[in-house]
Amino acid sequence: MQDVAIEFEDVVAGYGDFMILNRLSLQAARGKITLLLGPNGAGKSTVLKTLFGMLRIRQGRVRLFGTDITGVGAKALLVQHGVAFVPQGRNLFGQLTVWQNLELGGITLGMKTTRARIPEVLDRFPRVKERLGSQASALSGGEQKQLEIARALLLRPRVLLIDEPSIGLSPLVVADVFTLLRQLAEQGTTVLMVEQNVKSALKMADEAMALESGRLVLHRRAEELLADPDIERLFLGGAQALAQQVA
Question: Domain range spanning residue 48?
Answer without folding.
Answer: 4-82+157-246
